[in-house]
């Protein structure tokens, strides 16, 4: 039979409480026995102190101890407590309670020794552990009172008292164990109820139910675990949504050029369309589109896992930007878009970067502006050198992007306008690749609304040792 975690926790807490209760009972019993015996022995020592003057007076009257030798009746009359009659059966006299020391059988354990510590009368079993009290007469020690130590409770009253104490301790221990069992059961249920709920939710999560959530009912570690579970469920749900969207987008982006190629080839094969240079150019265009999409997907996958190669060197960022802008002059002219670069020709900003990847970054941003900006608009590029970074801004004119879509621009296959066709909107991978390139250079990239009415892409890159000129 396998025990659940609730039963294990219950028995663990209960066993701990039982062990503690038994240990406390044993310690209390030992302490009680030692303390009770110590109390009785202390009473006997006080009783011995009262015997010393009585025996000293008797010795002074007789001059020796011979009057006590082999005379137990005289001996017991001497050690009888003061005020106690010779016989308890005296008519008309109330019976006096004996002192506590006599309840332990002191009269039977006390002995009288002479000056040489030889037995005169009393208990003959005087051991080395016996307590000795000197009897002095005229400044000389004439004898000793010896008492065999009290080892265990033997009288009825003392035994009854001891039994009552042990019985009370046992009852208290039993009640404590029952309370411990109740508390252990309550704690086990209270602590493990959230865990069982999280376990059930985890099982639903493994079946694909990413909408499942756990109620956060406390601020302790269990509450933190519930919050982490909810974050995990949100992340898994988002990743699953992105995965499905990614597969749908990839299949759509691949299907479109393949469908065009298939249609063109079938038209050529059936003789519907003659094999002319324009037909070949159309086929090459679709092949180039398909090849670029595959290359972008490959580079994106490499950058996601950190496997995209970077050959960083001491590079002038602004020089790379100027060369990339020069290469796009004709492209913007064809689109009737003005390209303004507000960067002085002599200004330089050096960074530890890969010039080829920076060129790819700037090309993606320029291509994005060329695709999305309306004809007759413009793109303004500015650079601001700060203490340890350079801030590049790419601001274009209309159309703009709604504010709620700005954070999604750097997600793969995302387009600000879903109605755009592939010829205008591209595959939607350029900004995702750009973000990975910027992050690989320990920089940041963000999108915001442009003051010109369009989109503003801001790139911040660290300078090499914070130096610029």
Automatic annotation (TrEMBL):
Enzyme class: transferase
Membrane topology: Multi-pass membrane protein
Segments passing through the bilayer: 168-188
Gene3D superfamilies given in the database record: 1.10.287.130, 6.10.340.10, Histidine kinase-like ATPase, C-terminal domain (3.30.565.10)
Keyword Chaperone found: no
EC number(s) stated in the UniProt entry for this protein: 2.7.13.3
GO cellular component, as recorded: plasma membrane
Domain HAMP stretches: 189-241
GO function term, MF aspect, one: phosphorelay sensor kinase activity
Annotated Histidine kinase domain residues: 249-465
Keyword presence, Membrane: yes
Cellular compartments annotated: Cell inner membrane
SUPFAM superfamilies hit by this protein: ATPase domain of HSP90 chaperone/DNA topoisomerase II/histidine kinase (SSF55874), HAMP domain-like (SSF158472), Homodimeric domain of signal transducing histidine kinase (SSF47384)
Pfam families referenced in this protein's UniProt entry, alphabetically: HAMP, HATPase_c, HisKA
Record keywords, A-Z: Kinase, Membrane, Phosphoprotein, Transferase, Transmembrane, Transmembrane helix, Two-component regulatory system
Substrates-to-products reaction catalysed: ATP + protein L-histidine = ADP + protein N-phospho-L-histidine
The protein, known as: histidine kinase
